[in-house]
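Researcher: Quick test of sequence recovery. Tokens follow.
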């Protein structure tokens, strides 16, 4: 087939990863991002070995390693007694086993590395898509600024509130889970005496939604704290809304001293309600196709949302560039066959928050290589 112009709606983690992968495989691409400029929002991102392996293949791994931390172990503990219930060796052990380590970093550092790998003339900022229409085998986008663009096919990488998804399936609101997440970053030197600061540690509460997680950022100079709890009255979804530090400390006041020591060091915290959707039966229609949160938003309990978006991006690019496919429809079918089952399984598993709570084998998630996974 001739090289089509692939539009990508959304320049987040999945959209930028798709742009890099498509260009690497010789495709023509243009990204439409609603934000007028890329900003440093969000606190952390925990990238498990499967995600890092996919990002290494995009050529951004070295840039990520400049600021990322490499947690030594992934530890689960009882939230109240501190008793250890699971421990996986990460860092070099994960690198040997899965071909990549776990990396934890500021979310903005990931986005900066991805953005730097896409030529500026492939990204159109300030383009908020408000209407998507398939006309004569092409896709037309109308933007909030009154302009329009036409592409041969459009990848919906526009997150949980995707307009591309709405164009395909009609309006349907994400579901509020009744759970909120707190996120805070604390300088490590405020936590002198705390154990396992170089590890990913999760303290599990008495209900699945109640947990405190800690891991290093910024090559260990900062410690990230993530905590979740049911709170049905708070429904604001935001990367930047402040929470109440006193409330955070109060909620986990019966947690083990090691978890509380981290919370007590927080001076500010962000708070967001968590939303999800159910797995979809199909991800494409005509020349529209979905990836990342637009296709499968999930609870953050397995830390797989961004990882799955990057895996999608790589596999989708491979399908579009596959010389034995003679139409985009074949590419979409192969992409969906390769990805839908895995992401749906992770989407469902993420809801129960039991991943690696006791012992466990992470291989089915971590030992996935998006660059060589078979295209069925
Ligand atoms: C609290 C929390 C913690 C998380 N922690 C982790 C973690 O540690 N590890 C992990 O792997 N995942 C994590 N996730 C999940 C992860 O953040 C998402 O899965 C990931 O960001 C999805 O990437 P995406 O590119 O699909 O969507 P998004 O990151 O939402 O990006 C969508 C992009 O599209 C743009 N856009 C939206 N609408 C339009 C429009 N109409 N026109 C043009 N552009 C548009 C947006 O501005 C944005 O740039 C977490 C999620 C939450 C809520």
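Model:
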């Amino acid at each position: 087939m001739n090289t089509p112009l692939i539009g990508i709606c959304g320049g987040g983690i999945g959209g930028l990863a798709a742009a890099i992968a498509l260009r690497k495989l010789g495709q023509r691409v243009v990204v439409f991002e609603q934000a007028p400029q890329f900003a440093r929002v969000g606190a952390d991102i925990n990238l498990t070995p499967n995600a890092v392996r996919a990002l290494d293949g995009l050529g951004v791994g070295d840039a990520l390693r400049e600021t990322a931390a490499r947690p030594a172990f992934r530890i689960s503990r009882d939230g109240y007694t501190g008793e250890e219930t699971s421990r996986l060796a990460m860092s070099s052990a994960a690198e040997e086993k899965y071909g990549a380590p776990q990396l934890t970093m500021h979310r903005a550092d990931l986005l900066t590395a991805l953005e730097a790998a896409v030529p500026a003339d492939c990204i159109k900022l300030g383009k908020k898509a408000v209407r998507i229409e398939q006309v004569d085998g092409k896709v037309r986008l109308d933007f909030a600024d009154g302009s329009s663009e036409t592409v041969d096919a459009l990848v919906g990488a526009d997150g949980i509130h995707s307009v591309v998804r709405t164009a395909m399936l009609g309006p349907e609101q994400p579901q509020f889970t009744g759970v909120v997440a707190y996120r805070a970053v604390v300088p490590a030197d405020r936590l002198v005496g705390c154990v396992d600061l170089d590890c990913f540690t999760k303290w599990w509460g008495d209900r699945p939604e109640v947990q405190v997680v800690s891991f290093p950022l910024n090559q260990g100079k900062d410690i990230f704290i993530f905590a979740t709890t049911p709170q049905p009255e708070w429904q604001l979804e935001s990367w930047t809304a402040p929470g109440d530090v006193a409330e955070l400390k109060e909620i986990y006041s019966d947690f083990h001293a090691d978890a509380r020591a981290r919370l007590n060091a927080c001076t500010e915290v962000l708070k967001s309600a968590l939303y999800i959707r159910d797995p979809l039966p199909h991800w494409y229609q005509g020349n529209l196709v979905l990836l990342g949160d637009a296709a499968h938003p999930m609870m953050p309990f397995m830390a797989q949302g961004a990882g799955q978006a990057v895996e999608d991006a790589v596999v989708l690019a491979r399908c579009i560039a596959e010389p034995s496919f003679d139409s985009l429809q074949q590419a979409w079918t192969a992409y969906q066959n390769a990805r839908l089952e895995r992401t749906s399984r992770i989407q469902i598993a993420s809801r129960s928050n039991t991943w690696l709570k006791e012992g466990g084998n992470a291989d089915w998630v971590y030992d996935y290589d998006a660059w060589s996974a078979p295209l069925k």
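The domain at 5-46+107-173+277-366 is CATH 3.50.50.60 (FAD/NAD(P)-binding domain).
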